[in-house]
Structure to design on (273 residues):
């Protein structure tokens, strides 16, 4: 049932997930505070000093996130840098977790919200000692099905029902912008000029099938093409932020047909509300 339980916005700056587990609180606490276990279900964790003010380091695809634990109250609360807070409470038959996310300077990423839903699913399967092969089979399908649900949540609660994501699609193995892409960017440029305090995040994606190396290069070129078009239209460089260049994964729709592969060849431009 946890897999079906969407998180929700508490307010514009706070998002929460709640999960109930049939496991003792100490088991869940160990999975939250041991670097080796955290690396299994969340992100590669190279440092986790389980103490008040302790250091943590996550290796996010070669970009380390470092910080200190701003709260640490065993076996209840661990707070990573004030941005990601886990709180456990004992309940009959197990424990309850509340995960609280705080808005960062990059706003609310639909990709991140769907990601945390998936990582909590990994956490539960880790507690259940589910074989890694089964967890990976589950993870392959869950992300895409969650993405659009969280996109709707962002539109409903944050953007005032304006587009949360502007998707630009590309021809196979091509990084140049076609006429449709330019028309969509022109719509986004009008929004940014109308709202001068609104910045923009761009995530890039590659092709399928394609090698990882070629796909990463293609993703970067697509992001660069859109960024240059925006700058030439008068959008200042410091308003354009590059989030992730992700190559040929993070598919939104199934890849077993040409139409699906075409939809997945994209960049995503997200106004930072």
């Amino acid at each position: 049932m946890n897999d079906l339980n969407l998180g929700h916005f508490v307010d514009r700056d706070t998002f929460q997930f709640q999960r109930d587990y049939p496991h003792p609180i100490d088991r869940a606490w160990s999975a939250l505070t041991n670097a080796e276990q955290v690396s299994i279900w969340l992100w590669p964790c190279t440092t986790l000093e389980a103490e008040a003010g302790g250091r943590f380091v996550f290796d996010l695809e070669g970009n380390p996130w470092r910080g200190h634990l701003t709260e640490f109250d065993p076996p209840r609360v661990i707070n990573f840098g004030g941005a990601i807070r886990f709180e456990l409470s004992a309940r009959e038959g197990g424990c309850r977790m509340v995960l609280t996310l705080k808005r960062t300077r990059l706003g609310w990423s639909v990709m991140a919200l769907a990601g945390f839903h998936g990582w909590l699913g990994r956490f539960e399967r880790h507690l259940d000692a589910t074989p890694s092969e089964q967890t990976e089979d589950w993870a392959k399908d869950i992300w895409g099905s969650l993405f659009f649900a969280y996109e709707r949540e962002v539109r409903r609660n944050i953007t005032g029902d304006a587009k949360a994501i502007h998707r630009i699609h590309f021809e196979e193995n091509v990084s140049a912008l076609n006429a449709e892409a330019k028309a969509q960017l022109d719509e986004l440029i009008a929004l940014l000029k109308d709202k001068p305090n609104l910045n923009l995040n761009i995530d890039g994606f590659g092709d399928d099938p394609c090698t990882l190396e070629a796909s990463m290069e293609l993703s970067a070129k697509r992001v660069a093409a859109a960024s240059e078009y925006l700058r030439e239209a008068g959008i200042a460089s410091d308003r354009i932020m590059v989030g992730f260049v992700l190559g040929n994964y993070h598919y939104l729709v199934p890849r077993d047909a040409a139409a699906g592969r075409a939809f997945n060849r994209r960049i995503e431009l997200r106004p930072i509300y």
User: Anything to note?
Assistant: The radius of gyration is 20 Å. The mean pLDDT is 93. The chain has two domains: 2-157, 166-272.
